[in-house]
Specification:
113 residues; 5-stranded mixed β-sheet; 3 helices; 28% helix
Length: 113
């Protein structure tokens, strides 16, 4: 069961069209290593790999933000009070935003230096 899933994962190619990878983090300390994770994704899957990093349990600001100098990284500061977390799952809005961003639609509210 797992070898088949691993092979399917490794067959993903992001050389010619974007592929969105999503990771949620509970601690802001993990953000520091986001560019390292993105680099590994690009080395493994291709240069069009994009990373949506959802930072949970944020208060303000919330929403999507880009990071200067790292064009394939989108941070989504997630405030549970600001989003409907019932029904389709708590990260629905964040993932839909990430998909829009991955195909080139403008979504960011701001940028971190």
């Amino acid at each position: 069961k797992y070898p088949r899933r691993i092979n399917r994962l490794l067959s993903i190619r992001a050389d010619e069209q974007p592929v969105l990878f999503v990771r949620t983090v509970g601690f802001n300390d993990e953000v520091v290593r986001a560019s390292e994770l993105l680099g590994e994704l690009q080395n493994t899957f291709g240069s069009q790999s994009k990373l949506l990093l959802i930072l949970d349990f944020q208060k303000d600001p919330h929403g999507p933000f880009t990071v200067s100098g790292i064009p394939n990284l989108l941070l989504y500061l997630f405030c549970r009070e600001a989003h409907d977390t019932s029904g389709m799952g708590p990260y629905r809005d964040a993932v839909l935003c990430g998909l829009d961003w991955a195909v080139g639609r403008p979504v960011a509210q701001g940028s971190f230096p």
